[in-house]
Amino acid sequence: MEKGAARGREEEEQGIVFGKNAVAETLKSASRADTLYLSTEADERSLAYLAALAKERGAVVKKLHPLKLQKLCGSERHQGVALQCALCEYCEVEDMLELAAERGEEPFLLLLDGLEDPHNLGAVIRTAECAGAHGVIIPKRGGCSITPAVVRSAAGAATHMKIARVSNLASQIRELKKLGIFFYCAEADGESCFEADLTGPAALVVGSEGQGVSRLSRELCDRTIALPLKGRIGSLNASVAAGVLMYEIVRQRALKA
């Protein structure tokens, strides 16, 4: 199987996470945090918990003027706190399969084929974590990587979810199919997800916002599914569609259990 990414510091996405919730979730699960920045005008009592967490992680705690903190974050919405850290430590695809085995569950994976919007990527990761997916696979080229905007949109889920970055998505699909994982392509012209059997080892492939799933990835998938649209709009936001489809998989698995 193709390796998702070599373990090590060179594969970590570095950056700034800001906002109380995002910083707290990152500190709870990140293996390494460098520096916690607190606004000199923030209520120290409200940030004391974050400062204590940071010190437990071995991070340096520094005070910054609000304007400097705003410049560091590139936003006014920092809530008086920012964290310099590894945004994501990419794992191997094998790690996801091992997690499924440890939980005694059939594999449940997400493959994102060219998803470019960081807010959509963050939302997908957040939903995947809540839905109990074992991992999210993204391409090294042709899509969004883990950025500060992704981490904020994921609301802390990016540090809990296993994420792999692969050189060739098509090759990864082929390898996972050899292991008995069934691939579902999310496209508007597919059959209704409510009529398809989504139980068993599953991987959901979600495409880019404009182009959808690439031709090759779609051809490699076993089935194409969609959400029935009853309104006048011809498509759903990529992260919204992915979220509903993920929970349809969860629903069907629960009924089968």
Residue runs with pLDDT of under 50 for 5 or more positions: 3-10
Query: From N to C, what is the helix and strand string?
Result: EHEHEHEHEHEHEHEEHEH
What overall form do the CA principal axes indicate?
elongated
Average pLDDT reading: 89
Radius of gyration: 19 Å
* Helical/strand content category: alpha/beta
Note the main sheet.
6 strands, parallel
- What order do the strands of the largest sheet run in, or round the barrel if closed? 7-6-5-9-8-10
The tally of helices reads 9
Question: What is the terminal separation in angstroms?
Answer: 30 Å
Strand portion: 15-25%
Overall helicity: 25-40%
Q: How many beta-strand runs?
A: 10
Give structural notes:
- Helix content is 38%, strand content 25%.
- The chain is α/β, with parallel strands linked by helices and 257 residues long.
- The strands form 2 sheets. A 6-stranded parallel beta sheet has the order 7-6-5-9-8-10, sandwiched between helices. It has a 4-stranded mixed beta sheet with strand order 1-4-2-3.
- Helix 6 links the parallel strand 6 (135-139) and strand 7.
- The protein is elongated, with a radius of gyration of 19 Å.
- It starts with 11 loop residues before the first strand and ends with a helix.
- Residues 3-10 have low confidence and may be disordered.
